[in-house]
UniProtKB/TrEMBL annotation:
Record lineage: Bacteria, Pseudomonadati, Thermodesulfobacteriota, Desulfuromonadia, Geobacterales
Domain of life: Bacteria
InterPro entries referenced in this protein's UniProt entry, alphabetically: Aminoacid_DH-like_N_sf, Glu/Leu/Phe/Val/Trp_DH, Glu/Leu/Phe/Val/Trp_DH_C, Glu/Leu/Phe/Val/Trp_DH_dimer, Glu/Leu/Phe/Val_DH_AS, Glu_DH, Glu_Leu_Phe_Val_DH, NAD(P)-bd_dom_sf
Quaternary data: Homohexamer.
Glutamate/phenylalanine/leucine/valine/L-tryptophan dehydrogenase C-terminal domain segment(s): 207-447
Membership in a protein family: Belongs to the Glu/Leu/Phe/Val dehydrogenases family.
Keywords annotated in UniProt: Oxidoreductase
CDD domains registered for this protein in UniProt: NAD_bind_2_Glu_DH
Annotated NCBIfam families: PRK09414.1
Name the UniProt record assigns to this protein: Glutamate dehydrogenase
Length: 449
């Protein structure tokens, strides 16, 4: 762990540990932000007076509920649902829902905490929140998914609203699940309220580019970091982990920008295709047929499937982790650096451990942390809310242009803030400080609430 937490901030972190026992991912996310904030308190003593850091670490509201559902054989199952409404200083709580068996309060709190600063960086009026369930969608039938989503929304709906809390997708939650939850919300409330969820279908209030936004946005962010170093994607060998929504559209944009992506993965193994990935096949396998990535190698005999492989051992120049938290540890980071990586852009949330982050920062590579690099998804969700509010639907070109501009702004804000605070090139500090200051100022303005 980095010893660099400021002495004024350390007691706040100790209190977070005490108040939230066992929530290790939440501790990790909080510590990483708090490490950046010492110099901010020097410039802004009012933040310390008003106990802004202490308040920002405590969610405004945490909802935990039972989700009973029946499988196709009539068996009853009970899952646990969560929604952590972390901070609404800049707008309604906004952030995705994750359905994965690993979900517990500590995961949802880490994601909700990150979301506060990410959403602030977008420059759009959205607060931070996150939710989900320990439900495992793998191997479930379409009807089982629908029954689960309906049961989940039957409890959650009372906490949502376009001006209150607006969920979207995350791991295990895509367009299909958003559709079932939207239908149930509409049925229970008797309101057609498109702005209550984002990531909706294009025929019923969704936005063009939302599906692509996180991956495209992360690639735009890395492109901006490369440009600072007089580099470009063109001709670069790239490695992407995961094979879900973020991974697929990261690969797509990398290819559009002239890079060659040679890897993807799922939780069972890694695909290595030296001549470059066949993205149409990945889309067919994952988006249409919902199969495992292993099957990719059945169609390309020159591609290798490595069961339980370590994707970060495959040499690349640009790495974009797009699967899950803590997928790059200190050793993986050192391997990437040794093999010549020049840029790492995080499509996933907190995919690098603190030890890995330290390796990247010390090696002075271009390292874009998730809360900045993957903000394009939630930013485009906010654009979807704008379209819903004025009952409009923008073109793909216009929406992508807005996304590209937002990502450029986020990059420049992080870059300039890092310089201003004496750590040039450190996007971790830049993102944490810039994201924090905007929320902190709003909290001061709103008084003690
Ligand atoms: N969707 C969005 O708009 C945004 C997503 N993110 C983040 O991006 C990441 C990916 O999300 P998304 O693409 O939407 O999710 P998907 O469910 O579409 O895909 C997730 C991918 O990551 C793999 N994965 C998930 N959990 C693990 C694990 N524990 N170990 C190894 N592999 C794993 C999955 O493999 P398998 O099928 O085997 O589980 C799958 O390939 C997450 O960190 C998410 O929080 C960030 C910003 C926005
Ligand atoms: O689009 C959204 O509201 C949420 C996206 C998300 O979950 C994230 O940024 O991690």
């Amino acid at each position: 762990m980095s010893p660099q937490i400021d002495e004024k901030v350390e007691p706040i972190f100790q209190e977070v540990l005490k108040r939230n026992p066992g929530e290790v991912e939440f501790h990790q996310a909080v510590r990483e932000v708090l490490e950046s904030l010492g110099p901010v308190l020097v410039k802004h003593p009012e933040f310390a007076d008003r106990k802004i850091i202490e308040r920002i670490c405590e969610p405004e509201r945490q909802i935990i509920f039972r989700v009973p559902w029946q499988d196709d054989n009539g068996n009853v199952h009970i899952n646990r649902g969560f929604r952590v409404e972390f901070n609404s200083s800049l707008g309604p709580f906004k952030g995705g829902l994750r359905f994965h068996p690993s979900v517990y309060l500590g995961i949802i709190k880490f994601l909700g905490f990150e979301q506060i600063f990410k959403n602030s960086l977008t420059g759009l009026p959205i607060g931070g929140g996150k939710g989900g369930s320990d439900f495992d969608p793998k191997g479930k039938s379409d009807n089982e998914i629908m029954r689960f989503c309906q049961s989940f929304m039957t409890e959650l709906y009372r906490h949502l609203g376009e001006h209150t809390d607006v969920p979207a997708g995350d791991i295990g939650v895509g367009g299909r699940e958003i559709g079932y939850m939207f239908g149930q919300y509409k049925r229970i409330t008797n309101r057609y309220e498109p702005g209550v969820l984002t990531g909706k279908g294009l025929d019923w209030g969704g936005s063009l580019v939302r599906t692509e936004a996180t991956g495209y946005g992360a690639t735009f962010f890395v492109d901006a970091m490369l440009k600072v170093r007089k580099e470009a994607f063109d001709g670069k060998i790239c490695s992407v982990s995961g094979s879900g929504n973020v991974a697929i559209y990261t690969i797509e944009k990398i290819h559009q920008l002239g890079g060659k992506c040679i890897t993807c993965s799922d939780s069972n193994g890694v695909i290595y295709h030296e001549k470059g990935l066949d993205l149409n096949l990945i889309k067919q396998l994952k988006e249409v047929e919902r199969r495992r990535i292993e099957d990719y190698a059945k169609y390309h005999k020159d591609a290798k499937y490595i069961p339980n492989g370590n994707i970060w051992e495959i040499p690349c120049q640009v790495a974009m982790p797009s699967a899950t938290q803590n997928e790059i540890n200190g050793k993986d980071a050192a391997t990437l650096v040794k093999n010549g990586v020049i840029a790492v852009g995080e499509g996933a949330n907190m995919p690098t451990t603190p030890e890995g982050v330290k390796v990247f920062l010390e090696a002075n590579i271009a390292y874009g942390p998730g809360k900045a690099a993957n903000a394009g998804g939630v930013a485009t969700s906010a654009l979807e809310m704008q379209q819903n509010a004025c009952r409009d639907a923008w073109t793909f070109e216009y929406t992508e242009q807005r996304l590209a501009q937002i990502m450029k702004n986020i990059h420049d804000t992080c870059y300039q803030t890092a310089e201003e605070y004496g750590t040039p090139g450190n996007y971790v500090n830049g993102a944490n400080i810039a994201g924090f200051i905007k929320v902190a100022k709003a909290m001061v303005a709103h008084g003690l609430i």
